[in-house]
Write a structure and sequence with these properties.
Pfam families: BPD_transp_1, BPD_transp_1_N. The chain crosses the membrane at residues 9-29, 99-121, 133-159, 171-188, 228-253, 273-299. It comes from Alkalispirochaeta americana. This protein is mostly helical and 308 residues long. It has two domains: 2-87, no CATH class; 88-305, Orthogonal Bundle (MetI-like fold), CATH 1.10.3720. Helices cover 79% and strands 0% of the residues. The protein is built from 14 helices and no strands. Helix 6 packs across helix 8. The longest helix is centred in the middle third of the chain and has 36 residues, at 87-122.
Length: 308
């Protein structure tokens, strides 16, 4: 098992190199001059050229990319062109808010999706199953930004029970978490139902029922435990997706996370922050996937036995 974990950690190196190369290439060929952004559009050309030379922007692509990699390995992602603060510090200051929002969204998704999926599978083709699948279809199809706007309209403007934006109290977390959680809940519901339907038809489930075990014990201890692998996979992917994909939600609710920071950085052509943000989110997503793979071994002993 330790060898497998070590191998997966080593695989993160080419993944991060590939991500860094793609991001740096895109930002390198993006129109705009960071030196002119810092000095202003009316700055003399001589001053702009001097700053470009000082920042190393006149160097060839390979030299600039090599310098970027070398500095990134030391934890230096450069300085923000707007605030002049270290980009790494700006990102890590915002990351806890994104992590909190993603965790709350996944919690909402799991609390809604798994119970509904289990009941739908045990009552296949019932009225509840039909409505749950309609809910899942609506949840998958509904854009997050539209749902967020509608929630602001209902709970903040009409009912006035929740703040429309901001950060700092549990009340500020409710609407953003529900916005990103309900769409993920729809995906988890469908996967839970599909996985449970496959398991409940197995012979060992019929044997457990023939022994006289209650339906609750059969579903919770036998069926659900053996159906967890695909469910955990989807939950892990959704968590990684929310860490990097809550950009619109953070923007709508003025949530001070990494997604909103990157949107502002893209608008202001703040290249170091954009590059560092993409690297941080890619690393986080990879670590979440690694954690999910390790979790498989503790859910299913047969997987753990493969690494012995």
């Amino acid at each position: 098992m330790y060898k497998y974990i070590l191998r997966r950690v080593l695989l993160l190196i080419p993944v991060m190199l590939g991500v860094s190369f793609v991001v740096f290439t895109i930002m390198f060929f993006t129109p705009g001059d960071p030196a002119k952004l810092l000095l202003g559009e009316r700055a003399p050309e001589a001053e702009v050229q001097a700053l470009r030379t000082q920042m190393g922007l006149d160097d060839p692509f390979a030299i600039q990319y090599g310098r970027f990699l070398f500095n990134a390995l030391r934890g230096d992602l450069g300085r923000s062109l707007v605030t002049r603060q270290p980009a790494a510090m700006e990102l890590f200051n915002r990351f806890p808010a994104t992590l909190l929002l993603a965790a709350a969204g996944v919690l909402v998704a799991v609390l809604i999706g798994i119970p509904i999926g289990i009941v739908s599978a045990t009552r296949q083709y019932s009225l509840f199953d039909t409505f749950s699948m309609i809910f899942a279809l609506i949840g998958v199809s509904m854009p997050n930004f539209w749902q967020g706007i509608m929630m602001v309209l209902l709970f903040s403007i009409m009912l006035r029970v929740l703040p429309s934006s901001g950060y700092g109290t549990p009340a500020h977390l409710v609407m953003p978490a529900l916005t990103i959680g309900t769409s993920s809940a729809a995906t988890i519901t469908r996967m839970t139902r599909s996985s449970m339907l496959e398991v409940v038809r197995q012979d060992y489930i019929r044997t457990a029922r023939a022994k006289g075990l209650s339906e609750r014990v059969v579903i919770n201890r036998h069926a659900l435990k053996n159906a967890l692998i695909p469910i955990v996979t989807v939950v892990g992917l959704q968590f990684g997706y929310l860490l990097g994909g809550a950009v619109l939600t953070e923007t709508i609710f003025s949530w001070p996370g990494v997604g909103r920071l990157m949107v502002d950085a893209i608008r202001q052509r703040d290249y170091p922050v954009v590059q560092g943000g993409v690297l941080l989110l890619a690393l986080t997503f990879s670590v979440v996937n690694l954690f999910v793979d390790i979790l498989y071994a503790y859910i299913d002993p047969r997987i753990k036995a493969q690494y012995k």
